[in-house]
Amino acid sequence: MRSLAMLFAAGFAAACLAGCEQTNELGAKVAGIFGPGPSAPASAPPTALPPAETAPVPAPAPPSASTATDAAAAAAAAQSAARKGPPRVALLLPLTGPNAGVGRALLDAATQAVFEVADDDFVLLVRDTGGTPQGAAAAMDWAVEQQARLVVGPLLGSETQAVSARARSAGIVVLSFSNDRTVAAPGIFTLGIAPQDAIARTIEYARSRGLERFAALVPANTLGQAAERALRSSLASTGGELVRVERYDTGALDYAPAVRRLGQLAGPPPRLARGELGPPPPELDFEAVLVPDFGDRLAQVVAQLHGNEIDPARVKYLGIPLWNDPRTLREPSLQGAWFADTAAAPRAAFDGRFRATFGRPAPRVADLAYDAVALAAIVAHGKGPDGADFSLAALAADSGFAGVDGIFRLLPDGFVERGYAVLEVRRDGAYVLSPAPETFEAQSN
């Protein structure tokens, strides 16, 4: 069994974007699209997050006949990345285009990981994708030309799809920031926080608390489809009953029709004069409802649920990790709702260091960049300039890794397994009902 501890230290200063190599204290560690940046402050001795001691990775489900050949070929190509060489890692980011702000946050976090964790011979090669599949493919070609041993990024699923074939043919493992599992494959990992596993954790917890009958009100989009599939799979494995699923058009001005179909309501409740007692609301045939949405649309959907008397006094609302946002947690209509998210404590420590360095909070996506680059740096630790091994076998450690978002491990099929806590929305924020696991050993609620 193998374990790995992410090492942390004090912050450092950001690099500025331009067109040449960075010349601050990071020296040749970070190269590519950089200009001179301010010098990094002295760092405190690194401290270690406890390693993740785990059980062996469970065997993945057998691929279908139509994909078995491609999966086998992809796995073989990824395994060829075992060839030795200097620890050169390519970082593909959208540094221009509509996602440039996200790209800069990822760059800052990645550079922080290099400064805090990497050996002197570790080199991070940065390339702009422009946020497009074409740009990502060109950046991947550049990474191969630069003899990169591992690719971190790109950001989006479409970009990841564009680099996959080239990465497999070159025998290079990719750690994408996307949470689109449809682009995952052996050697092509999607690090993004996917709703599927979080929903499974929430349903498992709900079942352990005696809830049996579930419904779902989902947006008619990719997120809603993924959430619905996860709900159906989770209930099938835990023995719960799916009573009903209703879908709503995300472009609609009124979500009430879908809400009334969910509750099998003939129409909206009557408007009553002050003090007048109305008829009791109709019985609901489910005990919990999954609402996998976020932001303004979530607030509008929940308001419709309340307005049609499908409220927390009668059913338990269930959500997704995107609920772990200050604005959502302040929504009065969601008080008492449950959702799952990754561990908060290591994330808070990272955010504190990021704030101290950059003067702003770290967006959640920055966690992925830090963990991916720190993982690469530690896999290369102590191996010398000719000994870095970024093969699939080296990266997919059975025991997993302890990172900014808690424990995680890379699975042979390209999925990333994480440990999730179950949280309850309360007036003062999110309260932990069931903590995130510290290992991948089987645990109970």
Q: How would you explain this protein's 3D organization?
A:
There is one protein chain. The protein has 445 residues and is of the alpha/beta class. The protein folds into 2 domains: 7-193 and 344-418, Response regulator (Rossmann fold, 3-Layer(aba) Sandwich); 195-342 and 422-434, Rossmann fold (3-Layer(aba) Sandwich), CATH 3.40.50. Helix content is 34%, strand content 19%. The protein contains 12 helices and 20 strands. The chain has helices at 65-79, 100-117, 133-145, 157-170, 195-208, 222-238, 256-263, 295-307, 326-329, 345-358, 364-379, 392-395, and strands spanning 7-8, 16-20, 30-32, 34-35, 47-48, 88-93, 123-128, 150-152, 173-176, 188-190, 213-219, 241-248, 288-290, 316-318, 338-342, 401-403, 406-410, 416-418, 420-426, 429-434. The strands form 6 sheets. It has a 6-stranded parallel sheet with strand order 3-7-6-8-9-10, sandwiched between helices. It is elongated and about 75 Å long.
